[in-house]
Amino acid sequence: MKSRMIAMLSTFTLLTAAAALAQDHGWMKATIPFEFHAGGKVLPAGVYNVRYESGMGAMSIRGVNGGLFLRANPHESKKAPERSSLVFNQYNQTYFLSEIKTAGVVLGWQLSKPKVERELALNGAQAPPVEVALTRP
Question: What does the domain layout of the chain look like in residue ranges?
């Protein structure tokens, strides 16, 4: 009974946070100083606009050369981050977008690791994650 109540509260928290994120946060901007992998594509360094597309259940990332939609899974942190950011996993000079965090919101968005990243991770070449700030345009 107790675990059922905790599960219901956790689900309610995730849904409430997702709704708040979808309503309160429009486009955010990031200047990414390196080429990176996201959604099976390699994107060049540059300025990108990011937002949660509530109707699609996906994150939208748009740069000068176009954009893409990324399926992301809700990920609840123990503590809300102080600043919004994109989090990249780094393997030597190869970067993979792995998470999107929003300031003041415990719910973030985590991307699945593509096959090539999982293979690099098995080789033990991972450096600490790199965060790039997200700001309001």
Answer: 2-133
